[in-house]
Amino acid sequence: MSTPDIIDTLAGIKPGSALDAIRTKRLQARENAQKSYLSLFEPIDAGDVSLLERAAVAAFVTGLHGETPVASFYRDKLAATADGPRLVEAIELEIARGKTSGPYGSFPAGPLSVENTAGLIFRVSAERKSALGARLVAALEHAHLLVFRPRDAASDDMQALLAAGWSNTGIVTFSQLVAFLSFQVRVVSGLRTLAAVNASEEAAS
Amino acid sequence: MSATVNPPIVFTQDELGWVSWIEPLPETELTERHFAGLVDRSRAKSEYFRLLVRDPEVLEARTKTDKDIFYNVADGLPRAERELAAAATSRYNGCIYCASVHARFASTYSKRRDDVQRLLDEGVKADLGERWNAVVKASVSLAATPVAFGPDNIEELRRAGLDDAEIVDVINGASFFNWANRLMLSLGEPSK
């Protein structure tokens, strides 16, 4: 394999370890989680979502999940992307403004309304709008919704992205990117936790 | 199109439709690259998959990840409990459509339809017995942002009888639905 498996790398899974053997039992899932990563970050066609937009959104989304190995990986990726270094600080500042706990949001009006939970409706700070540009401003605001309050999503949110210059195909790729990272962050966190529990048991025995 | 949408207002095991808020590709515009992305050609009939196939490479990889996590039952966690993890995650995130599909699967494979319905009706705190409670709690801990999954979850899953390979199936299944829920919730809506 040319690119090392990204989930194994971020979760610290070593070749030949017990967790490596377990992941090998789901080889198709492992290989296609990797292909998902590659098709999002090394796409054959970046016409509808630029590599810079992908890296900026990824740094923002993973940063919103807290300071983890995944977040630092994508922050470094943004810094290594063409034109990326100028956005690193702006993204960091917006992560600090956007951090909260989820999921929250509203259900369709009816019996579930008692479960509605209010929370932050994130909007990019006015002072960073020109540095980020209209497309990324709309993308970060929507990404925050997807991370913390996906059940609030409405057709108007699609209209906001279209109005900011996102194409239908661009919206699909961008949504996949945020949703994929929501998966990747969790798989890495779960596997790291399991590996750490096993390591502490071995150390104790 | 919007005139015919009749969104459900409660979690249900009934079959629901799904209507896109943006434009899926028309069936007539699908090429071999798109059919490779759909994996199953029959998915060309689905509005959801004709929307996601706008990025065929991502859809293909996503679909193959999904199928192995849920359908590869040569070893590891029984299918019913993988579906339980998917349903619990969907209940917690608020995806009525995803919850309907995977609650039905959980019922089919476990033969515990009433318990599954209690998860939908009462939410993720419903008492479903030690083993299911541990799977639901682990799924919910993984779905929280920041992620709240920790050593206590591993300990509970082990106490309920799961080995490490089965725990990895819970992690994969629950994590995958944080992917699926966000697409289903944000690109369109369910309809009865």
Automatic annotation (TrEMBL), chain A:
Species name: Bradyrhizobium betae
Protein name (record): CMD domain protein
InterPro entries: AhpD-like (IPR029032), CHP04029_CMD-like (IPR023982)
From TrEMBL, chain B:
A Pfam family it matches: CMD
InterPro entries: AhpD-like (IPR029032), AhpD_Avi7169 (IPR023923), AhpD_core (IPR004675), CMD-like (IPR003779), Uncharacterised_peroxidase-rel (IPR010195)
Limits of the Carboxymuconolactone decarboxylase-like domain: 56-138
GO MF annotations in UniProt: peroxiredoxin activity
UniProt KW keywords: Oxidoreductase, Peroxidase
Record's keyword annotation contains Protease: no
PANTHER family, sorted: CARBOXYMUCONOLACTONE DECARBOXYLASE-LIKE DOMAIN-CONTAINING PROTEIN, SI:CH211-175M2.5
Protein name: Alkylhydroperoxidase domain protein
Source organism of this protein record: Bradyrhizobium betae
